[in-house]
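Hello Y.,

Per our agreement to keep a running log of every chain we model this quarter, I'm adding this entry. I've kept the format consistent with earlier entries: sequence first, then predicted structure.
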Amino acid sequence: MATEYVFISDLHMGGEEQLTTLDCEAELVSFLADLEECGGDVELIINGDAFGLWEYDDVSDRPDTASGPTKLDRVIEDHPRVFEQFRATGEAIDITLIPGNHDYDLACSQSHVDRLAAYNISLEPAIAITREVGDARIWIEHGQQHDSNNRMPDWGNPDALPVGYFVVQRIVDAAGRYSDRARGNWLRDIQSVTPMEEIPRWLFSNYFYREMSPVLRAIVVPLLVFFNITMVYLVGTVLESAGLVPRWLFTDNPVVNALGVADIVLELIIAINVVIVAILLLLAVPLWFFRRDLKHTLGRFGVMLSGVRVGQGDEPFLNAARDVFESHPDVAVFVYGHTHRASLTRWGDRVVVNTGTWLKKLQHVETWFARLPGIYYPTFRLTAVHIAAEDDRIVVEFDEIERDDSADLTRFQRLVARHPPATNPIPARTVIDPDGPLDVPTEEDE
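Predicted structure for the entry above:
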């Protein structure tokens, strides 16, 4: 039996065409090789979404409909280095995998158990599993059952699929197939856009910075950059007309007049922006009434104008952890993934751990010029969690493999983008006493 457990999740290996690219393959192989070298009483547990099986549309794992290779076979064929390293690492330590929502197919057919066993991976097709650590237990799950869009209504039934499956099939799968038509192959990163409400804004951002005609962008960018100058100019001319400021500040500014041709270009840009502002003001009033009436109409049908937010934050998962701690007093650590946000929450001598993701993360950042569209800054936060007993205590350690991927941005994006704020720090080492108290905060405290 293992005395130390290592957790990773949400690798999302596989998918149609461009989606099958695994950006962190080198880091993953190196990580597995290090575990092979360590050996000993260690168990690697991949708690869900190791594979992106939902992201295929032309193969099936159901015995009565399968034609050609199964989805899992496709993943293995596309990532031979990773699976050969799984085989080698699995000879030195135990490797256990549980299904998530994107690889839910693993829970629907016994054949996957034998297929993965060939690479020394033990598949446990359960929603949640536990492991002993010292005198306590670790509760392990992927977490999709606490997400209303990805909850499995009948675990193990291949036909009982949540709404998230159909979203992936219609949107994510299509993005993978058409990504090579985009400039920069950016569409394949659609799975890194969270929550899903961000997708329209992400699409517009990439259209503006990558797909828009360079000639059109060269015209639009100065208009947007000088939009704030236009607003200041308009206010200034009104103040000049009212006699509150001298005319040389705006209308007859000697510095601007000395610019020659540049002055003419600046005045042209300001004139165009003035026209745009006037049009927006004219449309603002009727659009406000239209939006107000539409909101009331949709309200009668029980639909909110802003739509249903998919990103739920961590609250449903923390609530699930509370229930587990209260109903299973011997559980000291609750481990989950799914949200792609690595975190550690401590309640007295109990710990809730999110194992994060090995996918690229896209973070919306503003530009240095307020009117330009925001940019989705790419980064990685490759996380492994180590849990072991130490004397009468339990130690939870976070191991982060940093990788900068800002090179994915275009030169213009790097020029105008602000640097994203630092991610929330996670304690590298947390020590708890499994016999200590559970101190769950109240809703008022949160």
